[in-house]
UniProtKB/TrEMBL annotation, chain A:
The chain crosses the membrane at residues 7-28, 40-61, 68-91, 97-118, 130-156, 168-189. One of its GO terms (biological process) is transition metal ion transport. Gene3D superfamilies: 1.10.1760.20. GO terms for cellular component: plasma membrane. Keywords: Cell membrane, Membrane, Transmembrane, Transmembrane helix, Transport. This is Cobalamin biosynthesis protein CbiM. InterPro entries: CbiM/NikMN. The lineage of its organism: Bacteria, Pseudomonadati, Pseudomonadota, Gammaproteobacteria, Oceanospirillales. It is a multi-pass membrane protein. It is found in: Cell membrane.
Automatic annotation (TrEMBL), chain B:
SUPFAM superfamilies: Cna protein B-type domain (SSF49478). The keyword Signal applies. Keywords: Membrane, Signal, Transmembrane, Transmembrane helix. The chain crosses the membrane at residues 165-182. This is Cobalt ABC transporter permease. It comes from Neptuniibacter caesariensis. Residues 1-21 form the signal peptide.
Amino acid sequence: MHIVDGALALPVLATGAALTVAGVAIGLKKMDYDHLPQVGVLSAAFFIASYIHLPIGFSSVHLILNGLIGLALGWAAFPALLVALFLQAVFFGFGGFLVLGVNAVNIALPAVMVYYLCRHGISSPSPKVAATWGAIGGAGSIVITTVMVAFSLMLSGEAFLLAAKATFVAHIPVMVVEGFVTAAAVLLIRKVKPEFLGIDEERAYG
Amino acid sequence: MGNFARIILAVCLLLPGLSQAHNVIGGVYAIGNTIEGEVGFSNGDMAAEGTEVTVTDAAGNELAKVFTDAEGLFAFEASQRIEHHFFANLSSGHVLELTLPADELPETLPGGAVVGTAQVKPVSANFSGDQVALQAMIEKAVAKQVKPLRQELAAYKEKAGLQDIIGGIGYIFGLCGVGIWWRERQKEKQREKDNASVS
């Protein structure tokens, strides 16, 4: 998921950086400062999630969690993910500093999209419907991210279909796992702390 | 639902050759005139067989294209004592660039413009063929012994420890703390202003 330094052309890097600056600006403006600890916790969760590889058969996957982060934070996902990506580059050597902008857009923009697409669904009165929308959000954000990664590579000269296929196939297990995890997280959070997802308690259980 | 989940899980298990690791690592070493290198991921998977590695000189002129074998290894026969650059693209934004400095290649090769290590020793007259062969054998033997160490060292360098994880989380929480502190200050100022305007 993290593109490394040297893989992308300069205009792509510049565009990614500009989009990230814009996204972070919107995120900081829209962020409810009372939710700052929540932003921090989810940022930390993302930071760790990429490091923990879960073995699946022949290979290992790691969670990305951008769907869940998007559902919980909306536009604030941009600053949260940028900070986490920066620290991953510093501590783990994931990605790089030049591609930070592109990586942030590729991961945070799907999170924001999922926020708008699935927000309504997860606050449905029926837990089943809510879980389904959670799963769609979790898996969908990965799908959008893989397409965006492939798109960034294409703009830098790689054949889109080839890159898209390679990235997509490699992330099918992640989509499945992420769908389950997000659905479970949505169900749990609805029960114990509905305001975390911005769900009105009255509506969810009325 | 249970069946469906099981089918999906089965599909996941059957998808071979998935590489989720982030970091592409590798190295190049000179063994006599041969430059040997390896490409792989930090989780221990090696590059897929047939991955193309482009060899260029320092100016970027392409010298050759070589391909990795099943163990992610590739070899290139150097004909000049110049800096060699190796570039591999493992798709999905995984690229790797390796450099082999000229002075790691034997001095018997016709040198390009090697700066800095320009001390070309004249090959002494009694340097017999046997000695050359012996030297090549020694180099090969040493390279073979050192290889696992190199691989282990490269893997060790890539490994992030608990300290890195805790450090990263600490930074994130620290940033949150700064944000909250700044927020409180703004509120405090607002309150003072309000009080001042009331009284």
